[in-house]
Every structure is written in structure tokens, then in C-alpha cells.
Amino acid sequence: MTRGKQKIEAQKRNAEKNQKSKGSQLEARAVGLKVICPICKVQLANQNQLADHYASKHPKEKPPAESS
Question: Which segments show compositional bias classed as Basic and acidic residues (predicted)?
């Protein structure tokens, strides 16, 4: 019954392959979020989002200048 054995082995290989590809999204998120709001410590992806954040959450404050 080689077909049954081959089927079981293929299922095991697929399960291992699928299990290895899963990872933590927190690590990917930490890499993508680079700008931090100095007032409320919210992490944002870029300077444009920081400007939008200031406009909506801190309207009386001016956004900090871009530091590169």
C-alpha cells in the first residue's frame, strides 16, 4: 500500500511546510513602524502619518520637523 504511505508522508511534509511559514506579525510590525509621536508615544510608519496624527489628535501642537 504505497499510496497510503505516500499520502501520509505528503500530509506530514505539507503540515511542516505550513507550520514553518507562520511567524509573528509583531516582529514585522515593529520593523515597519519607525516614527513615534513624542506626546502620546504612538508608533507610526512615516512622517505623513505623523502629520495626520497631529492634525487629528493634537490640533493645538505643531508636528516636529522631519529628522533624517
Answer: 1-19
